[in-house]
Write a structure and sequence with these properties.
Order of helices and strands: HHH
Structural class: mainly alpha
Shape: rod-shaped
Largest sheet: none
Number of helices: 3
Strand content: under 5%
Amino acid sequence: MTKDIDGGFSSYLFGVLSVVFAFVQPLAGLILGIITLKQSSQQKTDVEKKAKKLGIIGTVVGAAIFILQLVLTYLQTISLLA
């Protein structure tokens, strides 16, 4: 029983961190979101269900901002070369 509580809490913590880091450092948010999804894949408790939702949000936002950063960097590089 202690293992379930600890596993749920760590998944939830990684989920919260993935959302925070998605805005600060998108690649870290993406990685933490994937780790959260992997840890909360069983969905036994309510905390793990919330962690999975946070993991999905962190993964999607982190990936979107990371791709946006890549595109903007590419466009800036092209404008500097022209």
